[in-house]
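Appendix B. Chain record.
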Amino acid sequence: MTTIRAKKAFPWHIVFFLGPGLLIYLTVSVYPLLDTLRLSLYNEEMNGDLTFTGLSNFSKLLFDVVWSDPFWNATWNNLKFFVVHMLVQNPIGLLLAVLLSSPKLRMRNSYRTLIFLPTMLSVVIVGFVWQLLLSPLWGITENLMWDIGLGNYFDAWLGKESSALFTLSLISVWQFVGLPMMLIYAALLGIPDELIDASVVDGSSAWQTFYHIKLPLIMPTIGMVSILTFVANFNAFELIYTVKGALAGPNFATDIMGTLFYRTFFGFQLQQGSLTMGAAVATLMFLVILVGVALYLFLFQRRVQRFAL
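Structure tokens predicted for this chain:
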């Protein structure tokens, strides 16, 4: 005897709830992205008309000296900006998360709030305040360093090519270290107490418990923090623009892909803006981020999952 299964009705309620959000996402995110990819394949004439030129804009960015030197300089600076965050921000965030997750630490809720508080501030305000603090003319940093016996080490860090980008990277680390701290902190709180208690009963030290029990379990979260750091840093713009302007001085020493895109797309001072070349820069930024995320997903995430197991 055969049974006839009733055909399920189409779940229109899903469309009702997801439709408005999906429409907004397609309008403000997907469509501009696709239109940017389209513009990168055209050349803008003097009269404003667009002429299809294929990959010529990308050839200019990568190989033409006029465009390639600023592009590779910005790319290299962006990579250094990211490396500082990976080697400074995320390890500090991991250390703070481990310390704050200890039940023996008093006032840990207050410490957690104070560390996370700069993340909620505007990047423009943070950049302006730190520019005032580090100024050799009216900043208070030099006097504070003399008070603690380190005055000889003070320098115009934001005004030198050798130190400006590193200084801005540390300012960004100071502001956003609370994000990896909170993500890793939440992962540590999710570890079952039974595992920790069993490790202690077996005679493991605090370091052994962390390395053999906690670290493998939070490795997926550390991987997620790493890829979020990569995406955020290759989309960075506000801090550099606030402190050093669109020219990203001194002598383009702090120029990253975001500021290069701004100058190329909108134009700045004697440089005339170009919609198509700006779209090409934005497209390459998108491709760099896409390749980085893909490498993480297909090469490193599986290893992280195996390590966690």
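Further analysis of this model is presented in Appendix C.
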